[in-house]
Amino acid sequence: MRILLTGFEPFGGSSFNPSSSLVAAFAAEGLLGSELSTAILPVIGGQSATSARAELARAIERAQPDTVVCFGESARATHITFERLAVNLRDERIADNAGGQCCDEPVIVGAPVAYFSTLPMRAMRDACEEEGVPAILSMSAGTFTCNEILFFLLHGSGGGEFASVRRAGFVHLPQLPEQAALRGGPSMSLAHLMLGVRSSLRELIAPLG
Ligand code: PCA
Q1: What pLDDT digit, counting tens, does each position of 68-87 carry?
Q2: 155 labelled catalytic
Q3: How much is the pTM?
């Protein structure tokens, strides 16, 4: 089984993003039972060659994964948050890392209103909780770059341009304690994030042997 994990670069004035720290840690330790590849996406919306979409498309082209799990940060999250849905809307509260900011635009013109994640989110959430790491299912990945990349991924994996991809989804992570120390809010250590996510990823590998 080939699995691609992606994280995002820091954004919004922070010098960290828990998702890039987590993905770098998995790149170093590997994932038993899978051929693992990783990518770090820029927090840049739209379709330019430097956008998150373009970088994800290149990573999928290189790795030909059957499963893609993307990770991002939610500074308000108190739990590891398994996103069930992506919506066809970009409506951004802050500018992205290229200074762009969208209001009321579709991710993909003419595409459906929303897509459900195709990962076993409930089983992944349960596996995380069994390790004692707080985890929840969520019905909204927001309307910024994380939702955009999940929508783009699910659109392309449903028999579209990402032919190899059979299952895909997105997980939002709470900020790291280093970030909370500077700006307040809830946080979770990288060790806890790794513990929870490692057990949830095992759910993806086990059924396929
Ligand atoms: N979180 C943002 C974009 C990048 C990230 O890590 C979001 O929730 O859309």
Answers
A1: 999 999 999 999 999 999 99
A2: no
A3: 0.97
